[in-house]
Design a protein that fits this description.
Belongs to the cation transport ATPase (P-type) (TC 3.A.3) family. Type IV subfamily. With 1305 residues, this protein is α+β, with helices and mostly antiparallel strands.
Length: 1305
């Protein structure tokens, strides 16, 4: 039988008891025979039990422990004592899954069966006293509602949808009272329900499809029926199904990619309310308990009771136990506690709870299986303590973490994020007591206001002997939350160690999703142009039909009124508007996409929207992101100038030698710490006085750079080796610290009080300083400073005595502010200008020595100023300026380069020569944007850069526009604040000037602003705009563009998933536009014009026949001839034009000006269209007219009538000439032959002549076999083909196209 302390636990065993005691002696009520399925109910209010019965029901554990507390006993009534010792059964009961079921009821059976949950009885005063081992409802909102923990399976959603316009209260690690959106990324354009309506609407919004739908429907009317109904229905259905199939495949591919992103796994902590002191998740530890009881069965009981009493009195049980599960990103819910590590993408908008250093990583789960020294009568209440993290192991009273936000806002600087001290120092097992109050979802990425509340921990047991007052509730602790406590979706954890964060906003309510425009269906410019041309064809068809009816004098023909005859003519001429045009173009697009994806020189390129490849050849504006698109976001120290000499590239070795000489002690001497006043030791034999001076300067500037920063080194294991990584808010600072390490001076350690530098050569600690003050970098101040006190003496026992410790102030900053701070010099301006021209980010470094008295005066005044209630910042800045920031000794200038992506410079130059105007839109700082614009050659050498920043007044904005109008060769550099002012008050004026400038650089742009600029350029210029980016902050811009190109970034794939084309490097864009874009546009233009020609020429033949047959609306070519003409007899040769190319790839890259010509749209214009109409009219008239003249007209007959022999002979000649004419015209249009073209033309001719014997219903086969047929055929074909070809040759000779000029053809 189970020991009494065991049968209160959910998974108690039914054997191996510690003490063989009679159940009747311990709990008479529980031993009564009862049905296990219907446990007894106690009546707390209806009937009060006699005292002896209450005493009989006192659990053994309370009696046993209470005996040891006898010395503390207070005078209390016997009833209170007895009732206080009873377990509280009035509240809800918990089961082993973390909900409610078994309690400490001693009248419950020993082996309760699984039973249905019943509503809890109403709470009583007794129930509020709590149980010794029960977790009460510490987060009660009304009454005594207990914690509602998420079950181990899929959490059941709340019934009520949360109103997104109101603030939200989030219970950490628990089920929420409201339902929130799923955390899923979706770039799909359609849902299963919207697919058909939206795609059909899009298709029939094209005039050509609507026209053919009406023509097909007209065949239902008997008087208008011509031939078989399927002749008109089938082509339209085929075209629509091809297009719908392609759209469906594109969207399925998008969904598949979304599913891949949404299935990325994340570690989530699952919480379970502790049960009766077991300290671990119920159901997970029963085997351990059974095993420990067996092995320690014979141990002494007195020590157990003593140990147990000590645990009970020393610390309460943790509220909950937790363990880890891995959930896909899409399954994350509001309130989930997620564990994140270095370089992991943040899957949702979260609030940081706890930060662990790399040495003290978060525990993976409750370590409940650790062996214990001895068993106890009551399970260890603190067995969950292994999961608790001592606050000392966290990164401080408020934990710190760095994140990279370049995928969200484009800024390259790392952002420091802090945890609230309230949550940082709270045991993880208590997180379910937390509530986070957050505002409504907002798109502002730099703003957040909220609070975190910690509910008091309700007393877990009633103890009548305790001195503590049980009735007085504790106050709820709360702490404010701001942007520094958040990590938004799509940012990346940059610091080592682990983070715990609670999900606050999910899916469409995240900052990034709210800044992203909904995806739209994109239609290519070529399709719009063809749509307008088909309207002209329709007008032509309508006019032709009316003219023929008018020529017939509106007579009644075959019992049909004139308007019915006109409608029949419209149907007969329906081939003028070619239904096959769209399907040919759609299949052509698929071929272009295949060429792009299988191009070995741009491997990894993916076509995600296959409907707009021709637009790649029509781009006029390229809007590019900076970070990760033009640059790699990897900073490298390229140059340092120390006044008289500059070091770069290989010359850095000389800097290393100077550092080695300065920080390596002479052999035989005890290593001592170096201070700025230490004598420069150089080999006297080789060093001249000048070299010693230079060496001293180099030492000073390297020492300054190694100390003046906010970098913290961390060590971590990688492939079995210890690797040092650096954490800082700015990549520039990390680049400089890495450079000091490369030249021999390494940052060994840093905390808030001190910093230690190590010599890389000797391995000794050579510099140690105490940090007295740090003045961090701000965008307004543009500089950062530090006051340090140097330790001196032997490296093993350093000293920083107040009397002789050197105090130095170091500062570095932008040349614009440092020029007035450093002492007068004659080289600073010139050298910073030289570095800026190279595109380097310059920092000026200076220092100042402070006496102890000066620093003491500064410190007291600085403290006084920092306590000011008004104008505090100005007061502090005034004190710093008075004591520190004047007459600094100028040490040197550094030049840091943001490494560009591969081949960015030649790519931008080629695109500019191709006539594309390039804009750079970035969320980064003004100085950074300027440097990259110069280094990437976006701004030409010597080009004037007009900067507009922090503009707040409308009159100044107007004057800036006036200035730009007079200087249209300048580059405009504008920040987001000024851009917002222009877009709000001078929208049209600004864009009319900006689109004329060769280059525009916009910095500090929000994702919404980027999208607004793209839309504004599109709407104002009506030109094609291409946007390229790599981050989540670029998705809106990419979707707003006519052509969106995404680069597969190191941190994420949001941009590439949302884009129309995905590439791996920026330089791939050149080939995508200049080569594939050119080919796609030229091929589609030629293909569409030929398809129009093919439909027009057969309609002209029909017109000539109708005129010759007294204007009767009868068909010249019926049924199979009509269908075969537009399919197997001409389709393959015409479609093979998608393989044609006018120039080679090398010529296209060598002469990017050829691309500029494409923007004019001359390949498919009204001029070329009407030329093709003229050719069609000529050839159709010649073919049909000469056939009728030479052979005769005859009379068209219906299927029931006997065919007219003359008519059959005439159709044999005219149709055969028509087919051969089309094949020869295709051959005349080819510029570069491909073997498939030859095979398609020859093969189609063979198919046609091979099928003639089977066309006896349409042709006179005897006549076809005669010589008369062949000479007539040859004459008509020659007259039809020779004149157009002669005119074409003449035109090429008199005015050759540009591609022939560059080829010398």
């Amino acid at each position: 039988m189970a020991a009494p302390h065991q049968y209160h636990q959910p998974n108690a065993p039914d054997d191996d008891s510690d003490l063989e005691l009679d159940l009747e002696e311990l709990d008479p009520l529980a031993s009564r025979p009862q049905s296990a399925a219907t446990p007894p109910h106690r009546q707390s209010k209806e009937r009060k039990r006699p005292y002896h019965e209450l005493g009989a029901r006192i659990p053994l554990r309370n009696l046993r422990v209470g005996r040891l507390r006898a010395s503390k006993r207070k005078e209390q009534s016997e009833e209170d004592d007895l009732r206080g010792l009873l377990d509280d059964d009035e509240g809800p009961k918990r089961d082993s899954a973390g909900s409610y079921g078994q309690s400490g009821d001693d009248d419950a059976p020993l082996l309760p069966a699984v039973r249905r949950r019943r509503p809890p009885p109403p709470p009583t005063a007794l129930s509020r006293l709590g149980s010794n081992f029960r977790v009460p409802s510490f987060l009660s909102r009304q009454g005594n509602a207990s914690i509602q923990l998420a079950d181990q399976g899929g959490e059941s959603d709340a019934d009520e949808e949360h109103d997104p316009t109101t603030q939200r209260t989030i219970s950490v690690g628990q089920l929420q009272t409201s339902r929130f959106p799923a955390n899923a990324v979706s770039n799909a354009k359609y849902t299963p329900w919207s697919f058909l309506p939206r795609t059909l609407y899009n298709e029939f919004s094209f005039f050509i499809n609507m026209y053919f739908l009406l023509v097909a429907l007209s065949q239902i009317i008997p008087v208008l029926r011509i031939g078989y109904l399927s002749t008109y229905i089938a082509p339209l259905a085929f075209v629509i199904s091809i297009t719908l199939g392609k759209e469906a495949m594109d969207d399925i591919a998008r969904r598949r990619r979304d599913a891949e992103a949404n299935s990325e796994g994340y570690t989530v902590l699952k919480f379970e309310e502790n049960s009766l002191g077991n300290g671990v998740a119920p159901g997970k530890n029963s085997q351990r308990k059974k095993r420990l009881r067996k092995q320690n069965k014979d141990d002494g009981r007195v020590a157990d009771i003593a140990d147990e009493e000590q645990r009970l009195s020393s610390k309460g049980l943790a509220t909950c136990t937790y363990w880890e599960v891995v959930k896909p990103s899409r399954s994350l819910k509001v309130g989930d506690v997620v564990k994140l590590g270095k370089d992991q993408r943040v899957p949702a908008d979260m609030v940081l709870l706890k930060s662990y250093s790399s040495e003290n990583t978060a525990p993976t789960a409750s370590q409940s299986d650790a062996p214990r020294p001895s068993p106890t009568l009551i399970d260890d209440m603190d067995s969950g303590d292994a999961t608790k993290v001592d606050p000392a192991t966290a990164t401080g009273t408020s934990g710190e973490a760095f994140i990279r936000t370049d995928q969200l806002d484009g800024e390259t600087d790392w952002k420091l994020r802090l945890t609230s001290p309230l949550t940082q120092n709270l045991d993880v097992g208590e997180y379910t007591r937390l509530r986070v109050v957050a505002g409504k979802p907002d798109k502002k990425v730099n703003e957040f206001y909220g609070t975190v509340e910690l509910a008091h921990k309700r007393q877990r047991h009633y103890d009548p002997h305790s001195d503590e007052e049980t009735s007085a509730p504790e106050q709820v602790q709360s702490a404010p939350l701001n942007i520094d406590n958040t990590i938004w979706a799509n940012t990346v954890v940059a610091s080592s160690g682990s983070l715990l964060a609670v999900v606050v906003y999910t899916g469409p309510q995240t900052r990034q999703a709210l800044s992203t425009s909904p995806s739209r269906s994109k239609t290519g410019l070529l399709e719009l142009e063809i749509n307008s041309l088909t309207k002209w064809l329709c007008i032509f068809t309508l006019s032709l039909s009316f003219i023929l009816v008018a020529l017939a004098r509106f007579q009644v023909i075959d019992g049909r009124p004139w308007y019915a005859s006109m409608l029949r003519f419209l149907i007969l001429f329906s081939t003028i508007v070619p239904v096959g045009l769209r399907v040919n173009l759609d299949m052509g697009k698929s071929v272009y996409a295949w060429f792009i994806e299988h191009d070995e020189s741009i491997k990894g390129t993916v076509v995600r929207t296959s409907t707009i490849p021709e637009d790649l050849g029509r781009i006029e504006y390229l809007l590019s992101d900076k970070t990760g698109t033009l640059t790699q976001n990897e900073m490298v120290m390229k140059k340092i100038h120390v006044g008289t000499v500059s070091y770069a590239n290989e010359a850095m070795d000389e800097v290393s030698s100077y550092v080695r000489q300065c920080f390596t002690p002479p052999s035989g001497e005890v290593p001592s710490l170096v201070t700025p006043s230490s004598a420069y030791s150089a080999p006297l034999t080789s060093a001249t006085r000048t070299r010693r001076e230079i060496g001293s300067r180099v030492r000073d500037v390297v020492l300054a750079l190694a100390l003046c920063h906010n970098v913290t080194p961390t060590t971590e294991e990688a492939n079995g080796e210890t690797v040092t990584t650096y954490q800082a808010s700015s990549p520039d600072e990390i680049a400089i610290v890495r450079w000091t390490e490369a030249v021999g001076l390494k940052l060994l350690s840093r905390d808030r009080e001190s910093m230690t530098l190590l010599s890389c050569d000797s391995g000794n600690n050579v510099v140690k300083v105490r940090i007295l003050n740090v003045f961090p970098f701000t965008s307004e101040g543009k500089r950062m400073g530090i006051v340090v006190k140097f330790y001196h003496g032997p490296a093993t026992s350093p000293s920083d005595d107040d009397d002789d410790g050197e105090i130095w102030f170091y500062q570095k900053g932008a040349d614009t502010v440092m020029t007035s701070i450093v002492a007068a010099n004659d080289w600073l301006d010139e050298e910073t200008a030289n570095m800026a021209r190279e595109g380097l980010r310059t920092l000026v470094v200076g220092r100042r020595k402070l006496s102890a008295q000066t620093y003491q005066d500064f410190s007291s005044k600085h403290t006084q100023a920092s306590l000011a209630l008004s104008n505090r910042d100005a007061a502090v800045a005034g004190v710093v300026k008075e004591f520190l920031e004047h007459d600094l000794e100028l040490l040197g200038v550094t030049g840091v380069e943001d490494k560009l992506q591969k081949d960015v410079k030649p790519s931008l130059e080629l695109l500019r020569n191709a006539g594309i105007k390039i804009w750079m839109l970035t969320g980064d700082k003004v100085e950074t944007a300027r440097c990259v614009a110069v280094s990437s050659k976006l701004v030409a050498r010597g080009q004037y850069v007009h900067t507009i920043a922090k503009l707040k007044r409308k009159d100044l904005a107007s004057s800036s526009l006036d200035f730009l109008r007079g200087k249209l060769d300048a580059c405009l550099l504008i920040d987001g604040e000024s851009l917002a002012l222009f877009l709000q008050h001078f929208r049209q004026e600004f864009i009319s000037v900006a689109v004329q400038l060769p280059t525009v650089v916009a910095c500090r742009c929000s994702p919404t602003q980027k999208a607004d600029v793209a839309r504004l350029i599109r709407e104002f210029t009506k030109k094609r705009v291409c946007c390229i980016g790599d981050g989540g902050n670029d998705v809106s811009m990419i979707q707003a563009a006519d052509v969106g190109v995404g680069i597969v970034g190191k941190e994420g794939r949001q941009a590439s998933l949302a884009a129309d084309f995905s590439i791996e490097q920026f330089c791939y864009l050149v080939k995508l536009l200049v080569w594939h874009g050119r080919n796609s546009y030229k091929r589609s233009a030629k293909l569409s014009q030929f398809v129009i020609h093919r439909g027009l020429i057969i309609s002209i033949c029909q017109t000539v026949f109708s005129i010759a047959s007294s204007f009767e609306p009868n068909a010249l070519y019926k049924d199979w001839l009509l269908v075969g003409y537009s399919t197997i007899y001409t389709m393959m040769p015409v479609f093979s034009l998608v393989l044609d190319r006018d120039v080679d790839e090398s010529v296209a890259n060598l002469y990017p000006e050829l691309y500029a010509e494409l923007k004019t749209g001359r390949s498919l214009s009204y001029k070329t269209f009407f030329i093709w109409v003229a050719v069609s009219v000529y050839q159709g008239s010649i073919i049909q007219g000469l056939s009728q003249l030479i052979v005769g007209v005859g009379k068209a007959t219906t299927a029931t009538q006997t065919p007219d022999p003359t008519f059959l002979k005439m159709v044999s000649v005219s149709f055969s000439v028509l087919i051969v004419n089309e094949l020869v015209m295709v051959a005349m249009e080819v510029t570069t032959w491909h073997w498939i073209m030859v095979a398609s033309i020859v093969g189609t001719a063979g198919i046609y002549f091979g099928s003639v014997p089977f066309l006896d219903g349409y042709f006179d086969l005897g006549f076809v076999a005669s010589l008369a047929f062949w000479w007539k055929f040859m004459v008509i074909a020659a007259v039809s083909l020779v004149p157009p070809y002669a005119v074409k040759l003449l035109g090429r000779t008199l005015k050759p196209p540009s591609y022939r000029k560059v080829q010398g053809v």
